[in-house]
Structure formats: C-alpha cells, structure tokens
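Before our next group meeting I need something from you. Please put the record directly below this note.
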Amino acid sequence: MVAHSAARRDAAVRPTAPLLALTLLLCTLAGGAEAQLRGHGGPVRALSVTADGRGAVSGSFDQSAILWSIEEGTARQVLRVHEGAVNAVLALPDGGAVTGGEEGRIALWRPGGTRPAATFAEHQGPIVALALSPDGTRLASASWDGTARLRPLAGGEAQVFEGHKGNVNGVAFTRDGRLVTAGYDATLRIWPLDGSDAVRIVTLPTPLNTVAVAPDGEIVAGGADSSVRLFSPDGAERAVIEIGPSPVIALALSPDGGRVAAATVAGSVSVIDRKAGKPLFNLVGPGLPVWSLAFRSDAELVTGGGDRLIRRWDMRTGQPIGMLAMARPHDDLAAYAGDRGAEVFRACAACHSLTPDGGNRAGPTLSGVFGRRIATAEGYNFSDALKKLDIVWNAETIAKLFEVGPARYTPGTKMPEQTVGSAADREALVRFLEKATQAH
C-alpha cells in the first residue's frame, strides 16, 4: 500500500535440502486428496493446471511457486528463485513450468529441475500474466512496464509489443495465433505477429485486469467495473455481464469453453454460461480476495486466494469438494468495524501489516509509518529508485499517494497501481492509519 516495493528478497534463494524436505512434508501432512491444498505462506496469486488435470503449479505473495499433485493433495516440489511475489505461472505440456515474478524476471523450469533452466530479465516491471501459443512453442508475457513480449521457448530474441499507456495486466493467444493484451489504460488490443501496424484497439469505459480466449476464438475480459465482457475474435463486443460489486481480477475458461469463472477482489467467484452471457451460480467461500483460478476439467475448478489455500469446486453443483474450511486468518481490522478508513484499507491488507508483530509481507509493515522516511522500514529491501526519493510519510503525503497513484508519486515502485478517487475516503484512510499504525 504505502509506496514500497521492490519486493522483499528471500534470504535463502536456494533452500537447503533438509529445509525443502521439511516444507514438502508439512505440505503433505496439511493436504489430503479431498481437502484444500495447503503450503503457501501468503495469498495464492497465480494458478495453472497441467494438461491432464492431475497436477497444478501455483505462485504466491510468499515469493515461491509450488508444483502440486491435485489427486494426492500433496506438494511435489517448491520452486524458489524470484525476489518478490510470484504473480504468474504456467504449466507446460512436458511437465515443466514457467514462473513470472514481481521483480520482472521470468524463469523456465524443466521437469524435476531444482533451478531454472533459463531466466529472462528484459521486462522492466512486474510480470503479471503468461500465456503459451496454440502450437506450444512460444511464450507470451504481460508486464507493468507497459509491454507484452513474445519469445520462442527453444531460445531466441523476444518480440516486443508496445502501445499500452500503463500496466499490461493480461495476455492470451487467439486460435489463429494472434496476441491479445488487456491494459490498465482501458484498452483491449489484438496484435498480428508479423510486425505490421494493423493492431485492433478496442477502447472500453474501464481498466482491464485479465483476459482469456475461448476455443471458438471468443475473447473474454474482466475489468475494474465488476463486469465480464465478451468479444468476437475481431474485437466486436457481444455482451457485458455484471457480476459486481468488486473488480474482476482473474478469469478462467472451462476446457470446452462453455463456462467462464470470474473472480473478484471481494472473494466471490461467478460461474457464467458463456454462450448465454448469463451467470449460473456463485461459489461461496470465506470472503477473502480470490486472486487466481483454473479449470481442472469441465466438472472441476480450483481457486487460490487470500487465505493461502487452493480450493477445489464441483462445477456440476457449485459446491466445494471435501470439507470447506471457512476459518479466516487473523483479521487485523476486526477491531475497527464500522470505520470507513479500515474498509478502504482492506484491499491493502494482503500486502501490509499494521503492527510490529505483523511484520513485512509482500510490502513493508506500516507500523510506525507516520514520520518515517520512504524506503527505510527495517528488514525490508527497497528498490534503489525509492531510496532516492525525498518523501516522509505523513497525512499529506499518504493522501497524495492515493490521489495521483503510486506510479506517478513514487516512480520505481512495484506497488499495484491504485487510486482512491474520493477525497472523503482518502481522509478516512489517513485517519485510520494514524490510529492503527502507532508503534507499540
């Protein structure tokens, strides 16, 4: 929330064998074939299911990725190389995986490998989405540096797609191999891969957070206005499905393309009949953000969220598979029920604690933030760009951060771009933080 991030670096990028074994053992004991998958130490930010549906790869704010056996309910391997949240993952047909991190690097993992077979660091901002070409030979990536990139998995130079004014939040391939990107600049773009300028740009009334393409070529996009939009392969809008009230932050299509699952920052997941353009039912979870989802088959969905779990859902009934653990992590905001500022802050709680005991998460703790110079919170590794800024956090500077947005006010941050448009809400947020972050 308050300008941070370069993400906190993991002191042990290469875990020792005993530590890795213990981690996997704990994951196994906590799992179970009919239970939720447990193992991440932070919200589950990204999910991808293997082609046979038996396994999955997940990425988390805890800076790790995990390879899972869904059928056994166990973790097979923990992958650590990123120096920030793992925002994007992709299961490859050969059993390998690709992971994308907040620090801007992409890692290619071969089956069984304990270190990446290759890493790519051309992006200058967080990687937030990955996609594999229909023929399985090329990897597309979307980044908050304002670009998408396309590279041969076998090696070679990446092709750069520039034009979005701001974060590129989603990327996908059309059935005929063109590239589709979704941006914070409220545009959907369809790119030919021959380097021509014949880019189809669709301008919308809302920033876009995610995009997917159905087997028949229809494009599905989710936006900040709590809607799912359906487009023809050439970008003509067919339908707008409102699932509100919170922004749509993740999408998944069933293998047959008949259903769309749309997740929101408020924790709801709407399952939509794509052909009819109508919601069928909602999945009822613990009310925490659902950051990621993927269909295991037409009959089963898996979701990852703010409770650090991967949950399984029966798409025939809309019910959870196995016991639905509804216990929520400790709620730092429970003591502030009814405080408008606390409600505004709730979207920031996944990345920032308020008290010394809460420690650093994906972002630094906000304990004692008032009167503190930017990029000086103890125990957190900040980017050099932030360390050079002359900002001291107080009521005025925190309000300004959310008035103009982190990218403009604190250039060099990896903090998610967000603003608070209401002056009253900004004032309430500042008053809340003054109370809640006093060092004890």
